[in-house]
Amino acid sequence: MNATLIIQIVVFLTFVWFTKSFVWPPIVKALDERAKKIADGLAAADKAKADLANAEKKSVEELRAARESAAELRSGAEKQAAKLVEDARAEANRIVAAAREAATNEAAAAAQKAKDALRDQVAQLAVAGAERILRREINAQVHADLLANLKQELS
């Protein structure tokens, strides 16, 4: 062994000590920081993936709830429409019945009026006939009473 080898071993050991003391710690520190950043990024990605899954689940649930709500609203609207139609039919039937009753009453009143007019005419004809038969003047007041009695009897 010669002195060159010993000097090279001393230089090499000094180089190893220098590298281990001054160069290696910043490199390890940088690698640790990089590993921590990568781990944080992966954790954030996992959290984002979980959040996305939760958001998708929540959106599916809200969509289902919205569909159910829409179905309930549609059902309520259909029931309300059916009730309105039924109410309109009942109102129309009531109006038709009232119109029919009014027409019946009007027809009965017109028939009664026609009967009264006919009785008056019959009474006047009877008086005219009796006057012609008797060929004399009839007292109007006496015969008006007779006509009233005749009307009562014809009723």
UniProtKB/TrEMBL annotation:
Keywords: ATP synthesis, Cell membrane, CF(0), Coiled coil, Hydrogen ion transport, Ion transport, Membrane, Transmembrane, Transmembrane helix, Transport. InterPro entries: ATP_synth_b/b'su_bac/chlpt, ATP_synth_F0_bsu_bac, ATP_synthase_B_chain. Residues 38-128 form a coiled coil. It is found in: Cell membrane; Endomembrane system. The keyword Ribosomal protein does not apply. The chain crosses the membrane at residues 6-27. GO terms for molecular function: proton-transporting ATP synthase activity, rotational mechanism; proton-transporting ATPase activity, rotational mechanism. Gene3D superfamilies: 6.10.250.1580. One of its GO terms (cellular component) is plasma membrane. Its main location: membrane. It is a single-pass membrane protein. It holds the Pfam family ATP-synt_B. CDD domains: ATP-synt_Fo_b. F-type ATPases have 2 components, F(1) - the catalytic core - and F(0) - the membrane proton channel. F(1) has five subunits: alpha(3), beta(3), gamma(1), delta(1), epsilon(1). F(0) has four main subunits: a(1), b(2) and c(10-14). The alpha and beta chains form an alternating ring which encloses part of the gamma chain. F(1) is attached to F(0) by a central stalk formed by the gamma and epsilon chains, while a peripheral stalk is formed by the delta and b chains. F-type ATPases have 2 components, F(1) - the catalytic core - and F(0) - the membrane proton channel. F(1) has five subunits: alpha(3), beta(3), gamma(1), delta(1), epsilon(1). F(0) has three main subunits: a(1), b(2) and c(10-14). The alpha and beta chains form an alternating ring which encloses part of the gamma chain. F(1) is attached to F(0) by a central stalk formed by the gamma and epsilon chains, while a peripheral stalk is formed by the delta and b chains. F(1)F(0) ATP synthase produces ATP from ADP in the presence of a proton or sodium gradient. F-type ATPases consist of two structural domains, F(1) containing the extramembraneous catalytic core and F(0) containing the membrane proton channel, linked together by a central stalk and a peripheral stalk. During catalysis, ATP synthesis in the catalytic domain of F(1) is coupled via a rotary mechanism of the central stalk subunits to proton translocation. Component of the F(0) channel, it forms part of the peripheral stalk, linking F(1) to F(0). The b'-subunit is a diverged and duplicated form of b found in plants and photosynthetic bacteria. Belongs to the ATPase B chain family. HAMAP family: ATP_synth_b_bprime. This is ATP synthase subunit b.
